Amino acid sequence: MIWRWWKKFKAWEPQRKQGWLQKWAQDRQKGKIRFVLREALLITMIYLTVNELFRSTVGLETIFVPHFTGFIAALIMWANNESRYRNALAAGGINPPQINAN
Hints:
The protein is an all-alpha fold and 102 residues long. It has one domain (17-91). It is built from three helices and no strands. The relative contact order is 0.16.
């Protein structure tokens, strides 16, 4: 039973990678600044929510640390995704994504 699920998962992997490539192609077309700001704000909101739930102290580090951490993490995410995207296209095993002009 587990082998059957594993085979289905492995058969689905190329479709999943192609879907990720499509989404990343759209994200990168919108621009690095937009991606970094969106992800940094998301990380900051998660950090501030957890801080509010468990610490409830507000100080200078509560303002700067989440924004700085979110910004650095978002830049790392961009670089990682861009590297994966270029490697997948260079490998040739995955079709280049078709970007709709919607």
